[in-house]
Write a structure and sequence with these properties.
The complex is a heterodimer of chains A (91) and B (166). Chain A is an all-alpha fold. Chain A has helices spanning 5-25, 29-32, 35-54, 61-89. In chain A, helix 3 (35-54) packs antiparallel against helix 4 (61-89). The longest helix of chain A has 29 residues, at 61-89. Helix content of chain B is 78%, strand content 0%. Chain B is mainly α. Chain B has 2 domains: 3-71; 79-90 and 118-166, no CATH class. Chain B is built from 6 helices and no strands. Classes of the chains: A mainly alpha (91), B mainly alpha (166). At the A-B interface, helix 1, helix 2, helix 3 and helix 4 of A face helix 1, helix 2 and helix 3 of B.
Chain lengths: 91, 166
């Protein structure tokens, strides 16, 4: 049993697709916002996979840096969106 | 990659995809919060099986925070501003964009592609975005700007209608 770049990209594509589906499917904006971290998760998985398998000869830390940045950006976006929604809902 | 790592990768992938589907399909917000946490656990395991331990730790913390925000008491529901006609037009536009991307993916030879931007790093990505793929990056930036301007305009229209109704 082995894992290659194609398997990682399939999982990343699945995460992005699920996130896009959640963002498009939900009528409530704050519920649709939950799809954004999933899309970011897919992008991070693709970065880590490419850094692990396809970028031979260079540091694999770069993909990890991007994945960390994307995870932090995802949770910051959710917090910002829920904050705006809370402010709008209390008006 | 040995068998143990491969098993960990596939199990973590299944967990993260199941969590992602839960976020998309579950009806209650606390269930969706738990599903986002499950997706984060799966993502952390996936990173760990790809030898990205620090990214796994950060992803676990961030997605746990996101799950807590979604399931927590400060959550407020906010209905979409756009009307049904605009939503359908947007869905049709997204479907057209997906068809174009799928056509490009089928025509492209990504499985055998090699990264030729030099050593893979921030400088190489910068060269690709600002030199080789500058037109595509500008097009994406223009799309994002148009989306933000449209969202702002929609909010302003709704605010005016709300003020008139008072």
């Amino acid at each position: 049993m082995s894992v290659g770049l194609v398997a990682v990209l399939f999982v990343a594509g699945g995460l992005v697709a699920a996130g896009m589906f959640a963002a498009a499917w939900r009528r409530d904006l704050t519920a649709a916002l939950a799809g954004v971290p999933l899309m970011f998760a897919g992008a991070g998985a693709a970065f880590v996979g490419i850094a692990r398998f396809a970028a031979a000869g260079s540091s694999i830390a770069f993909g990890q840096e991007f994945a960390v940045l994307l995870a932090i950006a995802a949770v910051a976006l959710v917090a910002l969106g829920l904050g705006i929604a809370g402010r709008e809902g209390s008006r | 990659m040995d068998s143990l790592h491969a098993i960990g990768f596939y199990v973590s992938s299944g967990v993260s995809l199941a969590g992602a589907l839960g976020v998309a399909l579950l009806p209650l917000r606390d269930q969706r919060g738990v599903a986002l946490g499950v997706a984060g656990i799966g993502l952390a395991g996936l990173y760990l099986s790809l030898s990205a331990g620090f990214a796994a730790l950060v992803a676990l913390l961030c997605y746990a925070g996101g799950a807590w925000l979604l399931a927590g008491p400060r959550y407020r529901s906010l209905e979409s501003v756009a009307g049904s006609v605009w939503r359908q037009a947007g869905a049709l536009g997204a479907a057209g964009l997906l068809a174009i991307l799928a056509y490009a993916a089928l025509r492209g030879d990504f499985a055998h592609a090699t990264f030729n931007g030099g050593t893979f790093g921030a400088a190489a990505v910068g060269r690709l975005i600002f030199a080789h793929d500058a037109l595509a990056a500008e097009a994406v930036a223009a799309l994002v700007l148009a989306a933000l301007a449209g969202a702002t305009a929609a909010w302003r229209v709704r605010e005016r209608e709300r003020d008139r109704s008072r």
